[in-house]
Amino acid sequence: MNSEPKQVAVQQGKNRTHGVSVIAPNSTREPAQEDVMNEVNESEKLYDLSKTSSDPTGATATSKLARGKYLNLDGGKDREGKSMKKDANKELGSGPGQHSVSHTAESWLEIDILGLRRTLERKGKAWAIFELVQNAWDTDATRVDVTLSRPNKDGMSTLTCRDNAPEGYRDLSEAHTLFGSSGKKADPTKRGRFNAGEKFVVVMCESAKVTSTTGQIIFQSNGKRHETDVSTEAGTEFQGVLEMSEEEWLEVGRQVQLLLPLIQTTYNGVEVPMRKPLKSFEETLPTEVANDRGVLTPRKRKTEVRIYEPQGGETPMIYERGIPVVEMEGKYHVSVEQKIPLNTERDNVTPPYPRTLHTVVAGQTFDMLTQEDTNKTWVREAVETGRLKPEAVKAIAVKRFGETAVLQDYSDIGSNKEATSKGANVLGPGALSPAERKVFSETGAIQKAGDIADYKTNPELQEPENTTKPEDYDTDEEQFVRLVETLSPI
Fold first, then answer.
1. Taking Cα atoms as reference points, which of 318, 291, 298 lies closest to residue 306?
2. How many whole angstroms separate alpha carbon 197 and alpha carbon 346?
3. Closest alpha carbon to 117 in 23, 41, 42
């Protein structure tokens, strides 16, 4: 058995991904045995081509693409001598004609690009812009310009995002390395977690290119990619062609206006307004920080929180560093200037987080709330936590129930009637949850009717104003005492 097929297999192993192989759109995988036999039949040709590869445009194909219809997402850089090998035409018998083909797959998983694209599209097309803008905001850029052309007659639009970050991509392989290590994981002030966002944007596109200070990567429509020596002096430019309907294009324009830019950001030549927050303050909140192994772990950290007034009928939302994540019950947009606890798709927060934000917002805006606001679920939940300061609880109680509110007293029934007769707002069990009643009582924000002297009627709870000693009784008082003792012996 000559060694050339084995050399081909080694070379191809270098070109394939260790772990994940991705099927390009409009492709079907050929049977493994046929694929192996094709390698053997053309081994000489493939071996020669594997040594040197060039593009008709003159660009060097430094990405060492997988042959055929497979786009292999590299787990970092092309690895010399570390990829899985395919052994073709391995002899398993000694007799004449006794040959068998053994095929070892070079990646654990295969991902259908088109299938992944359709899965991502349910997030909406504006999501692609948010990912690109977020990447720029996480750098030292001072300006980001985004354009999205109106769909042409074929239903295709061109998306372009440029920033002026001085360094650009320090490692161009990050543009195509899915779930690779990322310095952003360990920095809670950066949104990046999974090193996947811009790669998913590439998946959304029919073709794309990323040009930065260290070079250019072109993602071709046939599922292959190659690098060129084209570069920028500063910053990074992403350009991609993607499917787009007129309705989607209009919706993207509306969604982009939800952004809360940290730096100058434009969309189709018009600057996205930099809104002034109603309040800005520091609060200790849950976040995620990578440990020594690069695994995101829960932490609590003091961070800046910004509260904004929704505009033009906008629904209040939770933001992560200016990027809208998910709608929230409440009155305001809340932007947390650090990583927030998100699911893998980064389109929702963990269940306890909204209540945490409700408490923080209510504690900071209690003086801005209306009576209607104080009856909303989000404010009531904030009170129930017991984490609001007493002055905030008192202000909310007064706005919600008025200055004369008292809690119904179950140990002094008469005091409730006395309070009602004098115009007090007696709060029965239906007016409050047990948790609210407990907080209002313990903070002194609302007292029980029987604790207020003007309403107290229970003799056992009430101290007598005047007392007379037995030796000082007059004749009438002595007769009254004897009567009581006769009728109600002790």
1. 318
2. 10
3. 23
What region does 253 belong to: left with phi over 0, alpha with psi -120 to 50, or beta? alpha
Mean pLDDT of 327-337: 95
> Are the C-beta atoms of 379 and 436 separated by less than 8 Å?
no
Same domain, 30 and 99: yes
Residue 89 CA, distance from chain mean position: 49
Residue with tokens 């699911």: 343
Q: Judge if 67 and 44 occupy the same domain.
A: yes
Q: Structurally, how many domains does the chain consist of?
A: 3
Count of Cβ atoms closer than 10 Å to residue 29 Cβ: 13
Q: Which residue has the tokens 């706005």?
A: 399
Q: What are phi and psi of 343, to 5 degrees?
A: -75, 175
What is the tens place of the pLDDT at every residue in 161-170? 999 999 887 7
Q: What is the rounded end-to-end Cα distance, in angstroms, of the chain?
A: 117
Backbone angles phi, psi at 147, to 5 degrees: -130, 145
Mean pLDDT of 466-472: 83
How far apart, in whole angstroms, are the C-alpha atoms of residue 147 and residue 123?
A: 20
- Kindly state whether residue 451 falls inside one of the protein's structural domains: no
339 near 361, Cβ under 8 Å? no
Q: Which of 8, 283, 301, 254 is nearest to 125 (CA)?
A: 254
In this prediction, residue 298 has a pLDDT band, given cuts at 50, 70 and 90, of confident
Given a contact cutoff of 8 angstroms between Cβ atoms, the answer to whether 39 and 8 are in contact is: yes
Q: Flag whether 191 is in a domain.
A: yes
| Per-residue pLDDT band at 467 (split at 50, 70, 90) | confident
Tell whether 251 and 341 lie within a shared domain: no
Co-location of 154 and 197 in the same domain: yes
Q: What is the DSSP string of 234-273?
A: SS-EEEEEEE--HHHHHHHHHHHTT---SSEEEETTEEPP
d(CA 321, CA 31): 47
Which conformational region is residue 251 in: left (phi greater than 0), alpha (psi within -120 to 50 degrees), or beta? alpha
Decide if 314 is inside a domain: yes
pTM here? 0.72
More confident residue, 51 or 189: 189
- Residue 104 DSSP label: -
Residues 247 and 342 in one domain: no
User: Quick one: how far is CA 311 from the chain centroid?
Assistant: 22
Find the mean pLDDT for residues 446-463.
82
